[in-house]
Amino acid sequence: MMKKYLSYILLFGFPLFGCQNKVAGQAAYEQNWKLLEQENSALAFDADIKLSDAETALDKKLFQMRKQFLAETETQKLPLFSRSFNELKPLIETSKLFDVLQMMPKGGLLHTHSGGITNVDWIISAARKYKECYVYDQKDNDQFIFGQLAFFAKENVPQGFVSLDKKLISDPGFESKLKELLILKRDNLCSYTDYWIEFEKRFKRINLLLPYRPFFKEYYLKGFQDLAKDHVQHVEIRFIFDELYDFQHGKYPLKTSITDLQDVIKEVHQSNPQFTLKLIYSSFKFLDPASIDKQLEVAFGLKKEFPDMISGFDLVADEAAGNSIYSFQNNWTKLNELSKKYEVDMPLFLHAGESNSVLNKNVLDISILNNQRIGHGLNLIYFPKSMELIRKQGKLVEVSPISNQILGYVSDFRNHPARVLLSNGVQCSINSDDPSVYGYDGLSYDFWVAFVYWELDVKALKKLVFNSINYSSLNKDQKKEAIVYLNKQWNDFIQKANQKLN
Ligand SMILES: [Zn+2]
């Protein structure tokens, strides 16, 4: 009997036992895998967001829409990856996803610049209406460059400038040529361009337009109206202050820019009563510490007079060509003293890490300084300790995906460093940096790129949108009001988008 039992075990028992082990092993493997999956998502920047049933329903629809979009591009053999924004733009505009993202409330645009907000077609058509507007139509020299626009009194027009309106009438091809000169395109990802040189030329071509007071007001009104149309409720501009002027009065004090912008905002309020604006006083990284001292004094002076309009201070320009943030340490250590003198704080909003190089160490300064928001932070992922500090300190990275591609820091959007930041729990917001220079309006394009290439879901979109108000420079009461408004807009959007995609 025993022998028979043993032969039974030998024949069937051991295999059965082995099978049970295998099942138990598989269950443990699955459990470990699922645990790891949960642990990874718990580290992500949007881990605290819980979706409502309606949001979950929309999430499923958007997931399917993206899947279908990707399948269609596959069928049509459209190269979707490693393509420049310029090549992708028509595809984005005709996609159903773009319609939905255009409907989405964006919250705040936290990172944009004074010379890069307003549509280039509009700039040309508005500028030509002024008989005192001229364009430089000669070869570049030390002072002026081809296509540079400016206002002059009739008796003071420098040589080489011709009336813009007359030039546009007499040379029918000039309008599109001028447009090309005002927009920076990365036509494809392979050809060589000295991006920053070309980029700065775009700004130079309109720099003499903006301080002309009548044009200044029109420019910002149009810029803000277009942003409001794209469901942006709040804007913070890295603002380069210049004395405004007109030909009757001459120059106005610096603060006229602020009071004029307050008037412009009142006009925007007629159609968009919730719209808010803050200015970040911006100077340049290529200046020396002594000049930055002077700039800081001016910024403090303006903030003391307009504490509700000026939110902080930044230094802009190509990080590879300019001075490091570290080299301005004497300026930063004086901030406390200046705060006491002027009785206002001056938080920093520095551009840092707009670079692919580990030799650029600007992100290191961010965790040491009172700098709640970082412009770009592309190379932050190569400084793990700083990345951890920035995450723990609850600082936010202002990400501008399209700008980063056009200026040559990223080619394939799928490989944008912000994906690493987001999955590691670093808070981010989506921004357009200089949309008019890149040839588009609003913030929907950047959200489209992030949604499609970074495989975002509604949870991530919601967190990015709400971050842009939570990390804004709005004061406590304004923020509260802005969140109430955004919540309402968000819920309306979820409902409308769900209906639209039924
Ligand atoms: Zn910027």
- Give the number of domains: 2
Number of DSSP strand runs: 13
Q: Could you list the spans in which at least 5 consecutive residues all have pLDDT below 50?
A: none
| Fraction in beta strands | 5-15%
Shape: globular
Query: From the helix content, strand content and strand pairing, which structural class follows?
Result: alpha/beta
CATH topology (level 3) name of the largest domain:
TIM Barrel
Radius of gyration: 27 Å
Percent helix range: 40-55%
Major β-sheet profile: 4 strands, parallel
Domain Adenosine deaminase: 209-482
Cofactor: Zn(2+)
InterPro entries: A/AMP_deam_AS (IPR006650), A_deaminase_dom (IPR001365), Ado/ade_deaminase (IPR006330), Metal_Hydrolase (IPR032466)
Family: Belongs to the metallo-dependent hydrolases superfamily. Adenosine and AMP deaminases family.
Any overview of this molecule?
The longest helix is centred in the N-terminal third of the chain and has 41 residues. By secondary structure, the chain is α/β, with parallel strands linked by helices. It folds into 2 domains: 315 residues, TIM Barrel, CATH 3.20.20.140; 91 residues, no CATH class. The strands form 4 sheets. It has a 4-stranded parallel beta sheet with strand order 1-5-8-9. A 4-stranded parallel beta sheet has the order 10-11-12-13. Helix 11 links the parallel strand 8 and strand 9. It is built from 20 helices and 13 strands. Helix 9 packs parallel to helix 10. The structure holds zinc ion. Belongs to the metallo-dependent hydrolases superfamily. Adenosine and AMP deaminases family. It comes from Chryseobacterium endalhagicum. Keywords: Hydrolase, Kinase, Metal-binding, Transferase, Zinc.
